[in-house]
Amino acid sequence: MSNQIQQPDWGRIAEKFDLWLPYIAPVGEAMLEVLPVAPGDRVLDVACGTGEPALTLAGRNPHAYFTAIDAAPPMIEVASRKAHEARLANIAFEAMPAEHMRFADASFDALCCRFGVMLFEDSEAGLCEMRRVLKPGGRFALAVWSTPETMTTMHWAHRAFAGRIPEEQYPASDKISSLGQPGLLDTMLTQAGFDTFTVERRTFHYRFESFDTYWDLVEASDILKQQFDALPEGGRREVRDEVAAFAREFHGPDGLAIPHDYLLAFG
Hints:
The chain is an alpha/beta fold. The chain has one domain: Rossmann fold (3-Layer(aba) Sandwich), CATH 3.40.50.150. The chain is built from eleven helices and eight strands. It has helices at residues 10-13, 21-33, 54-60, 73-85, 123-133, 152-161, 173-176, 184-192, 211-221, 225-229, 235-247, and strands spanning 42-46, 65-70, 91-95, 108-114, 134-145, 198-208, 251-252, 255-266. Strands 1, 2, 3, 4, 5, 6, 7 and 8 form an eight-stranded mixed sheet that branches. Helix 4 (73-85) links the parallel strand 2 and strand 3 (91-95). Helix 5 packs across helix 8 (184-192). The relative contact order is 0.16.
């Protein structure tokens, strides 16, 4: 079963993508905990976006060698600039789709992919390529979003925009969480040739001082620009107020903590 979807305009969002990196950092840390890297290892980060978690891995493991790829050249441009600024000599970035990697079989000792597999043009083909370039006995860790209702902020947006904009422009929560159904990722990994692995459902939280802080990030990052642009006059404030109502139950003494579920696969 291929998982082909319409891709967003990565060129437009590449420069603002990093605004969200601190909030998904816990997922990267969880991946690195189950992906040991030894001196001399060659490690691949697939769908690296603007460079994470590859940059963190390279900084922590100066005697290993890292390659990071993404299908969107603008993302690679940002990531390469960050590596240069950090003076990391053990990492290289290439614009390359996961489904058509230009690497020989069994090229890497380990690989990772954070929130990328569900966005491949063809998820099955991408997983098969990942298995092909991984050495026998090599290690991997990947994360995908869980079910739509557990990707809380995207679920809020989908509900708030429903009925206000054309249906074809609703936030794509169903696409982003398309691999979250129980057992689906396990099946796809097995079909791709991964034979020893664990899939765990985990939860992390987006944490903000207040709802206003969260909403400022939503607007600054342009993550919902297409939907905002499609709203009638006055609709933007209505959407904000509805999402604020959804968020009320997640306020606590330390601010706003919004739970999100994801699947962590490793082996």
